[in-house]
Amino acid sequence: xxxxxxxxxxxxxxxxxxxxxxxxxxxxxxxxxxxxxxxxxxxxxxxxxxxxxxxxxxxxxxxxxxxxxxxxxxxxxxxxxxxxxxxxxxxxxxxxxxxxxxxxxxxxxxxxxxxxxxxxxxxxxxxxxxxxxxxxxxxxxxxxxxxxxxxxxxxxxxxxxxxxxxxxxxxxxxxxxxxxxxxxxxxxxxxxxxxxxxxxxxxxxxxxxxxxxxxxxxxxxxxxxxxxxxxxxxxxxxxxxxxxxxxxxxxxxxxxxxxxxxxxxxxxxxxxxxxxxxxxxxxxxxxxxxxxxxxxxxxxxxxxxxxxxxxxxxxxxxxxxxxxxxxxxxxxxxxxxxxxxxxxxxxxxxxxxxxxxxxxxxxxxxxxxxxxxxxxxxxxxxxxxxxxxxxxxxxxxxxxxxxxxxxxxx
Length: 410
Prior knowledge:
The chain is mainly alpha-helical and 410 residues long. The protein contains 19 helices and no strands.
């Protein structure tokens, strides 16, 4: 398989696209939120919380999955995660009215998020290694195409809900996800060290003045990484960027209806935003290969901040447009995190290092929910927007402080 992938590394990208399409299932939750609340007898707020709770378990599991990925073949670790993840979706078809929220957390969020935590470091590290010369492009393209698939899944999901009902829809998705993800993750193997060095040399030869510091790659162990200021600046920046998206996205359909959109347009906002997200995930990381990871991160987090402010008062069609612009900038920034980690800390321990950095999603998910619950009575209906704006503004400041020349630390 290794020799085959050396000549056909595009296969790794195709596999990643299909896997990401399945693991991004919570991004569709706005379509399922109301139906799930009615089917399980929980509130809309409790239903919306299933999205961040998946992220909580994902972040915790990513540390374990990342370390295993550096010790065992990535296809073994990610295939185990794929099975666990799919079981979580299938469990949603078992729940009925009267199911407690805690049961749903343990039956769905834990296996789904935990399984994704095994998958993400393995697939991400494979992409970074096979495309060491085009990390931003490869990561961006794979995530962009998977987001494009989610556009179609948005409408397919609505059709299946109306035709089959929520339980049967979840059962079908779970079975399909298991078949697709296990099939794709089984092909993932690591390239040789010589192959990675060859691709890095190509990348360095194409570097311009702007990228000089970012292309001086050295390998850090996880312990060494945790001793650097760069890690904490990137880690905390990632944490503060999450609320701007996570506190709004799960409820965007109901929020759109409240602000004057028809139900069909509100549902379409999920598909439109997903499509725009796909574009952002491709364009922004690809641009970062040319102008540098840090510069790109600063530019697009600033834009995300501006759009967050405008979104707070937007109504009707303008809300749809501004939300899409925000998702474009925000999704591009989050896609930069994985290549940023390998730029700063190398590829040898990429799985473990990306697993650790992924913990930001757990901390951010728990923190976002706690802070929203605490400040909502004070800030009122705009609480989610205000918290998101403050958070993404802090992200801009922290990213601008990152010194990309980690070579001097070795």
